[in-house]
Amino acid sequence: MLCGIDEAGRGPIAGPLVVAGAIINEKVEGLNDSKQLSEKKREKLFDEIKKKCSYHIVFTDAKTLDEKGLSTCLKNSITEIMEKLKNEASEFLMDGNTSFGISNLQYKIKADATIQEVSAASILAKVSRDRYMCEIASDYPNYSFEKHKGYGTKAHIEAIKTHGRSLEHRFSFKVKGIDDQNQATLF
To answer: C-alpha dihedral over 135, 137, 139, 141, to 10 degrees?
Structure first.
């Protein structure tokens, strides 16, 4: 059995990194790269994937990303998924261009659009992260996390300029227009 692995949240300036692994046990129709699907379609597929797949989802918070670095956090998340699903999967395939030095991990660019198991993992990771950002939005009303999900939109950068970074922000990620002016402060 193949376990597909993908992540969401590698590039945002706020929120967690979310990595998911999925093994398809029953056919799921309509799978694709999560970025190619509407939010409504992702939400529908998310529930179906959870019913028809074995899966594991790993969240890494912004503070840990700052302390350990993105590559280490990705590697640790992938390793956790492989450990949790090792009794069900004989192969592990990650979307992307590296194995992060993990033996027995295959990788393929654009696997999230071409390999069903990786598509399922892509949807699990994206929907889990998006839901988290919507859930915390009321705790940080100045940032509108429910709208941009932590990505560096113009409105988000303006909010950081006005209010500083929150505890959900990644301090190690340099933001053009802020860090070059030394205006980033802890909120």
So the answer is: -160
User: Does residue 55 contact residue 49 with C-beta atoms inside 8 Å?
Assistant: yes
Chain segment 32-51, per-residue pLDDT in tens: 999 999 999 999 999 999 99
Tokens, residue 63: 């503070």
Sequence spans of domains, the chain = 2-137, 140-181
Q: Which residues are annotated as a binding site?
A: 6-7, 95
* Rounded (10°) angle between helices 116-136 and 39-52: 120
Q: Give 180's pLDDT tier (boundaries 50, 70, 90).
A: low
Q: What are phi and psi of 83, to 5 degrees?
A: -65, -45
Binding annotation for a divalent metal cation: 6-7, 95
Q: What's the token pair of residue 102? A: 């993990």
With a CB cutoff of 8 Å and minimum separation 6, the contacts of 38 are: none
| Cα angle 178-182-187, degrees, rounded to a multiple of 5 | 80
Cα separation of 113 and 116, whole Å? 8
Class in CATH terms, 2-137: alpha beta
